[in-house]
Write a structure and sequence with these properties.
The complex is a heterotrimer of chains A (231), B (193) and C (191). With 231 residues, chain A is mostly helical. Chain A contains eleven helices and two strands. In chain A, a hairpin with a 7-residue loop joins strand 1 and strand 2. Chain C contains nine helices and no strands. The chains are: A mainly alpha (231), B alpha+beta (193), C mainly alpha (191). Chains in contact: A-B, A-C, B-C.
Chain lengths: 231, 193, 191
């Protein structure tokens, strides 16, 4: 699935880009789906969860990379899990102390960052094999890739379901009252449906890109086209 | 043993780090929670000038009235805020009800719930809850289509009749408790002469 | 809260997979055929039940008793990880056939967020006793298995269908899961 050896010669920016596009944890690797569906009822939730996960991923990657030579292979997984759980607890306390609104919006899904497959996956496949700088770059890249997916799904669901965008922030926009809101989209089934359609749209664009050269003026198509060219 | 030692050392170090952060943030978390609680209470007793809140009294019940807070204004007993825990449509929920000394509702707020966003959760919104304000007695939930509206009829949120009923029942329970509390309070004053 | 309500809530109304989105990795990964789905389901019910009991006891008698509740995440994940190892060893000792049937799924359960999820829900629910926690754990596992089995049946049928190119693979799987989840919304009224 992942091929860290091919990254060995890459500079850090390439590692970050790799996390966001080529090996995007949600769209390409399909790991850590639980928060992508559970908390994306609003864009702000997507941003907060993305930031919290990126922080945990980056710091756990750095520490695991520093300790990689001291860790015996037999107990490496429990050690990784303990380190990840430590950072998750720290993030939980910081959110509770400084942004209590975000803490109560994300609720039980904060402790569940521990079992997010992406974090353990990156610890095992990347951080335990690379130096701390590269591990940090990988953490940031994968974290941003994950956050991007959360924000895309969150924005779709908030606009279609609640008729707002970025509600809970000073930049909140509201759709005119004439446009209908589909409550189903913010309900649990809406999570599955939205992600399913977002993935189908992405796949359709990639497939098209492979056969016909599409104009690259749209930013979204542009970034996705990069993924296909890397593959 | 050789392999378990690194795991043990790392666990101890991580625990120490968590304990350190916990120590740093504990005070702030407590202040936040207290501030959020008094802010919620102040928003409920909006008609009362300079409200002062007593400590929260726990009733020891697990459901129904779980706790209450007395509110004084200028040294006079002015209101009581009652926390009721009840079963919503989708899971446990709690509501805070502020009642004046004559037993009418000053304000209602759903403090926690697990209702579905966009459906049951609308019964935690101000549009629904403001229907209780300034009324007293026993509330009855009706749907607009099939009832004449009386003073104590609360119009259910569309598609959330069950949640609306559960909230109204909780408010009724709070008012019943408030009236007992207020009676007891005045009885004590009378007894003291 | 009465025990039947805890059961209905965890298994159907707030189904862990279809309404709380916990345990999606095995749900999407192991639901390709009915037989493996059944094996995974049995393993999950067992681990969720036992881990609910152990984490609840540890939380009541160690973490709360010594004011260490801030260590709950690290304590729970270690308990779950060691429990899974223990279960693996015991099953290996007792029955070779059971081990070959379940063995592959056991390590996957540690990172199944439903297991940690139910442990955290148990301690956050103030009315819960040990019995509630145990029932909640087993019902959540049962709900997971139900969703997994239903979904495995649908996926076995789906293989033969003509699906638009862009929807093949994961997108149609997610949309199918969305439709089952919609059906489960109907359980909302029974509590």
């Amino acid at each position: 699935m992942t091929h860290p050896d091919s990254n060995r010669s890459h500079p850090c920016t390439k590692i970050i880009k790799n996390g966001i596009f080529t090996e995007n944890p949600i769209f390409v690797q399909v790991l850590g789906m639980c928060p992508v569906l559970a908390i994306t009822t609003s864009t702000l939730n997507g941003i907060s969860m993305g930031a919290a996960t990126t922080a945990v991923l980056t710091f756990s990657n750095i520490f695991i990379s520093i300790l990689r030579k001291a860790v015996p292979t037999a107990v490496r997984i429990p050690i990784f899990v303990v380190i990840i759980a430590g950072f998750v607890t720290i993030v939980e306390f910081l959110l509770r102390a400084y942004v209590p609104g975000v803490y109560s919006a994300l609720g039980i899904y904060i402790p569940l960052i521990v079992v997010n497959c992406i974090i353990l996956g990156r610890a095992e496949n990347f951080a335990s094999k690379h130096n701390p700088l590269r591990a940090a770059a990988d953490g940031v890249g994968m974290g941003l890739g994950f956050a991007m997916a959360l924000i895309i799904v969150g924005a779709f669901r908030e606009i279609l379901g609640s008729g707002t965008f970025l509600s809970g922030t000073p930049f909140m926009l509201t759709l005119p009252p004439g446009i209908p809101r589909t409550i189903l989209i913010v309900l649990p089934p809406g999570g599955f449906l939205t992600l399913g359609f977002v993935m189908a749209i992405r796949k359709h664009i990639l497939d098209k890109k492979k056969t016909v050269k599409v104009a690259e003026n749209n930013e979204f198509t542009h970034c996705l086209s990069k993924c296909s060219s890397c593959k | 043993m050789k392999t378990a030692l690194p795991l043990f050392i790392i666990t101890v170090l991580v625990t120490a780090a968590i304990a350190f952060i916990h120590g740093l943030t504990e005070e702030r978390i407590k202040t936040n929670e207290h501030a959020a609680y008094t802010a919620a209470l102040s928003a409920l007793v909006i008609g009362i000038p300079d409200p002062v809140f007593s400590e929260t009294h726990e009733t020891g019940n697990r459901t129904g009235v779980v706790s209450y807070t007395l509110v004084t204004s200028g040294g006079e007993f002015a209101a009581v805020v009652i926390n009721v825990r009840f079963m919503g449509d989708q899971g446990p929920a709690s509501v805070a009800v502020a009642a004046s000394t004559c037993g009418s509702v000053l304000g209602v707020k759903v403090t926690s719930h697990e209702e579905t966003p966009g459906l049951g959760a609308n019964a935690a919104g101000t549009d629904f809850l403001s229907q209780f304000t300034d009324k007293s007695g026993i509330f009855n939930v009706v749907r607009t289509a099939n009832a004449r509206i009386h003073t104590n009829d609360i119009i259910a949120v569309t598609a959330a009749t069950n949640t609306s009923r559960a909230v109204a029942d909780a408010v009724n329970e709070a008012l019943r408790f408030a009236s007992q509390l207020i009676l007891k309070f005045y009885a004590e004053i009378l007894a003291e002469g | 809260m009465s025990l039947p309500i805890v059961f209905l809530s965890a298994a159907l109304v707030n189904n862990f997979v279809l309404s709380r989105f916990m345990g999606l990795c095995p749900f999407l990964g192991v639901s390709k055929n009915l037989k493996t789905a059944l094996g995974m389901g049995a393993a999950v019910i067992f681990v969720m039940g036992t881990s609910s009991i152990i984490t609840f006891i540890v939380n009541e008698h160690i973490l709360l008793a010594y004011n260490l509740e801030y260590l709950y995440i690290i304590a729970f994940i270690l308990i779950i990880a060691s429990l899974v190892q223990l279960v693996e060893a015991i099953i290996k000792r007792i029955s070779r056939t059971l081990y070959t049937a379940l063995g592959v799924y056991l390590p996957l359960i540690t990172t199944n967020c439903a297991v940690l999820g139910v442990a955290v829900i148990n301690i956050r629910e103030e009315e819960f006793s040990l019995l509630h926690a145990a029932v909640n754990g087993i019902s959540a596992g049962a709900g997971f298995t139900l969703a997994l089995l239903l979904f495995a049946c649908i996926r076995e049928e789906m293989v033969a269908n003509a699906i638009p190119k862009a929807f093949r693979g994961l997108p149609i799987t997610l949309i199918a899961a969305g439709l089952i989840s919609m059906a489960f919304l109907g359980f909302g009224g029974i509590l």
